[in-house]
Amino acid sequence: MNDPTSGVTHLDIDAKESTFLDSSELILNMGPQHPATHGVLRVILKLDGEKVLGLECVIGYLHRGVEKIAENRTYAMFNPYVDRMDYVAAVSNGLGYCEAVEKLLNVEAPPRAKYIRVILTELNRIASHQLWLGTHALDIGAMTPLFYTFRDREEILKIFEKYCGARLTTHAFRIGGCLYETYDGFEQDVRNFLDFFTPKIDEYEELLTTNRIWVQRTRDVGVISGKDCIALGVTGPVLRASGVKWDLRKAQPYAAYKDFDFEIPVGTKGDTYDRYLVRMAEMRQSMRIIRQAVDGLPSGPIMAKVPKVLKPPVGEIYHSIEAPKGELGYFIVSDGSTQPYRVRVRPPSFVNLQALDLMCKGQLVADVVAVIGTLDIVLGEVDR
Amino acid sequence: MVGSLKRRFGSGLEALTYLGQNYLQSDAALLPELLQNLRDEEQFDYCVDITALHYPQRERPFDVIWILYSFPKNERIRVKAQYADGAAVPSAVKLWTTANWLEREVFDMFGIRFEGHPDLKRILLPDGWKGHPLRKDYGILQQDQAWVQINLGIESGQ
After folding, report:
1. All domains of chain A in start order, with CATH
2. Considering the entire predicted model, what is its pTM?
3. Chain A residues with CB inside 8 Å of B100's CB?
C-alpha cells in the first residue's frame, strides 16, 4: 500500500478517510420530464441504496402568473383563466371563483343555477378521480384501469361538451349563475350516465381492490397521520384517508350542498391503499349527490340580476370549496374598480405536495412514484 | 374570543367583520404572540393560507395576511398586519409546518422576508431571477431579460 508506484492508495480499505466507495448516499434527480411526475415536477432524492432519506421538490416550471394576470383583467374576463389551473377539474375552479365574486358583489345565484352547478361539479369530481385512478394505477404497473377509466370519463366529457361546448376547460359558470340553460335531454343524459357508471366502479374495484400486487404496492406506503395532515395543511381525500372526517361540503356548505344527503368516506391508516378506497367511495357518493340533484332540479331563472359592469364594493373575501384535490380557496380584494386589486388562489395541490417529503421518508424509490400518484397533484395548479 | 384577545393584547388589535367573515387587524409588534395564542388557546390548528397585499403609496406598503381555520370550532379567521418594505415578518413555520412553502411563495412574489424561516428561497421563479412580480410596480409584461437571455438563449420571452 505504501508502494508509490502501485497507484491504488485511495482504495485502501483500512484507511480512515472516506472514499467514494464508502459513500452509500446518492443524490438522484427525478424529472422534470418524467412520466410518473404527472407533469413537470422535479424531485431531488437523497438515497441510501434504495431507501429515501429525504427529498426536495423543485416546482415552478408551469408558472404563468395567474394571480398577476387577474390584477389586469376585469372580474368576468378572469373567469376562463381559473379553468387552466387544475385543468382536470376546471368546473370546480370556476365554481369557487364565481361564488367568491358573487359573495363580494352580495348577489346569490338562483336555486336552479346552484343545482346545475352541483351536478356539473360532481360530474367533474368523478372525472378527476377517474383520471387519477387511471394514471396512478399505470404508475404502479397496472395498465388496464387506464383504458377503463378513460373510456368511462369520455361519457362525462360528452355531457360537458353538449352543455357548454368545451370538454376540459369548460368555463361553464358565470358570475351570478350559469350562462347556458340545460339542453334538451340533459337530465336523461345524466341519468343514463349514472346507470352506466354504477357497474363500472365495481369493475374498477374488481380489478384492484383485492388484487395482491396492488395491495402490496399500496398498503403501508406513504403513511401520514391525521395530525401531520393538519399541521401540513393537507386537505381533501388525503386528509380523510388519515381519519379526519372533514369535507367543506358538509363543514361549511356552499352552492346547494346542504340540500343533499351524502356521507364523507374516511380511512383509518392514512396509507396509499386507504386513499384509494376513499376516492373510490367518493365517486359513489358523488353519484348519490348527482342523482338527488337531477331528481330535485328546480325550475326558474339561471342567472341572478348582475350589472353588466361588475364593480364590487371595496372589501375582501375568502371563499373556499371542496375541489377534488382538497380545499380550493380564493382570496379576492376589491378596490371598487372593475378589476380586482388582488386575487390569491389557495391551491390544494401546492399545499398537499409539501407533504411528499414526509410521506416518502424511509420508503423505497419505487414508492415515491406511488406517493406522487396518490397525492393527486396537478402541476398546472401547483405552479399557477 | 375577541374579549379575551382584547384583554391580552390591548388596543393594538381591532376585530372587524366584513360580509360575515371575521378578521383581526393587528399591530405588527403583537404578531408572534398573537399567532401563538390563536393556535394554542383558540384552537386555530390549521393554517389555510399566508399571503400579502402591496399598497405602494402607503408608508408601510405591505399587508401580510394569515388565514386560519379551527377544526374543533369550524371557524375561520384572518389576521392582518402592516409591514414596511424590508421589514422582517416573524415566520410561522414553528406553529404550522405548512407555512414553509406558503412563506416562500410570499417571499418569491413580494420580496417579504420571514425571520426564522428554515430555508427562505424562491419557489416558483428561478433562483437567479430579479424582481418580485406581484408588487404593483412590476409590469405585467416585465421580466428579467438578462436571466432569459443567459439561461434560455433567446432574445426575449415575449
Report:
1. 4-58 (no CATH), 70-383 (1.10.645.10)
2. 0.86
3. 354
